[in-house]
Amino acid sequence: MDVGDLDLWLSRVRNLTVVAAVAYPALGIFLTVDEGWHWSYLALFLLSPVAAVLGIRAQREIRGGLAAGAMALAVAPLPLMAAVEAL
User: Fold this and answer.
1) Exposed, middle or buried: residue 52 (CB in 10 Å: 0-12, 13-18, 19+)?
2) How many CA atoms does the CB half-sphere of 27 hold within 13 Å?
3) pLDDT digit string (tens) for 13-35?
4) SS3 at position 76
5) What is the spatial distance between Cα 41 and Cα 33, in angstroms, rounded to a whole number?
6) What sign does the dihedral 46-21-72-63 (CA atoms) show?
7) Residue ranges of the domains in the chain?
8) Is the pTM for the entire model greater than 0.85?
9) Angle at 71 (CA atoms; ends 43, 19), nearest 5 degrees
10) 15-39 core/surface letters (b: 16 or more CB in 10 A; e: else)
11) What are 30-77's pLDDT values in tens digits?
12) Residues near 38 by Cβ (< 8 Å), separated by ≥ 6?
């Protein structure tokens, strides 16, 4: 993997995490208004800002492992919320 590919990947991870930080709380507000409060919605409000901070930091410091963790945290709230609701 050359430097251009790494920079492109880090930029995409940063963009994904920042969009998730905006979209997931909006989804949480919509679901709360529609169905009422469930404790599983807390994952939408807590994990997305953490993922955004890690994604921005990974791109700034050029750290691929941190970017992978940020991307995993950006995707994790939806399956986590579904798993908690299924219990």
Assistant:
1) buried
2) 17
3) 999 999 999 999 999 999 999 99
4) coil
5) 12
6) negative
7) 3-86
8) yes
9) 70
10) ebbbebbeebbebbeebeeeeeeee
11) 999 999 999 989 999 999 999 999 999 999 999 999 999 999 999 999
12) 31, 85
How much is the pLDDT for 66? 96
d(Cα 64, Cα 21) in Å, to the nearest integer? 20
Token pair belonging to 73: 């945290």
Question: How much is the pLDDT for 1?
Answer: 62
The answer to whether 36 and 48 have CB atoms below 8 angstroms apart is: no
Read off the DSSP letter of residue 49: H
Tell whether the model's pLDDT for residue 4 goes beyond 90.
Answer: no
